[in-house]
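Aim 2 progress update. The chain analyzed this quarter is reproduced below.
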Amino acid sequence: MQPATTGWRWFACSFALGLMGLSGCKHADNPAAEAPPAQPQVVNVGGNDTVHIDGAERFTLAAVTSRPIVSTLQVTGSVSPDVSREIPVLSLANGRVVALHVGLGDTVRKGQLVMEVQSPDVTSAFDAYIKSVNDEHLTAVTLERDKLLFDKGAIAKSQLDIAQAGDDDAKADMRAAEQQLAIYGVDKNHPGDSVKVYAPASGVIISQNVAAAGAAGITYAGATGSLTIADLSHVWVICDVYENDLATVHMGQHADIRLNAFPGKTFSGTVSDIGAVLDPSIRTAKVRFQVQNPGGQLRIGMFATATLLGAQAADQAVVPSGAILQLHDRSYVFLPSGQQGTFRRVQVKVGRTLDNNSTEILNGVSVGQQVVSNALDLQNTADQ
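Predicted structure tokens:
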């Protein structure tokens, strides 16, 4: 009985091994049964600008259409003060600043005290004034005496005339001395050792060339002013315009001004000057825009973009915005190359973003051509 049991065991093992072999052969004969679903296959053709994609029918195409669009020119620059509205604050007396009541960026009103200057010029002017008063008093007494003597026949008419001329000269000198004190801002009846300087106009302090205990006044070498006040109710936006674009810029032309500080907000500007001299290194001219600044929102130095509109509308190519691919600061679209599933990437120059989710194309494609509607999806598929 023992040999029979051993034979049956050998037969069962052999049968099981046979079944396992048949199963392994079945999988070897049908590898697709365990493979993942097929994915689109990408084949580069002629470099990175042409690709072939299996299953390309899922990328829809859109026609390049034409639309009348007013041409635009965008230039960049910054906000600057209107120099015609800048007023320097000067001390006509040389000396040392003993009090500075305002600083850079402060808003001042006309007639406000801004600084005090201790000056030897005031001492000299007041000394000249006192002497002129004494001289005028002496000549006046002399004239009155000579008139009495002339009436009695004690002196000649010529001597009276000399006394009259002396009194007239003394009065002129006294008036000049009084005027000198007034120019310095000194009250002749209550003189002090310092000159008070007041704001000549209302505005904002945009320049400060002096500090407390510093020197102030006008010298023979000239002076730019201790302080500069600017009326910022109107400002300039100064932009660089390339030589090739200057023909489209005209005096009095309207421009839309936008600033990074106020996204979505537009200010109105007018071309007030076109520079006569070009920068020789970058071939640009300075174009100045006059802009109203209600509430002082535009601040000196802010970055600005000016958009100039053309006079007439012209037909321009337009594509869906999704058809444009941005790579490394360049714009591209995908065009069918003529072979099934093959697309060609073409660089284009884009213009403004329009309504209906479309974008203006300045050059690179022609009206009637077909472009891939979703360029980013196609590029991502090609990169896989």
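The chain has three domains: 50-70+314-383, 74-83+231-311, 87-229. The helical segments are 2-29, 120-151, 157-184, 375-383. These observations will guide the mutagenesis experiments scheduled for the next reporting period.
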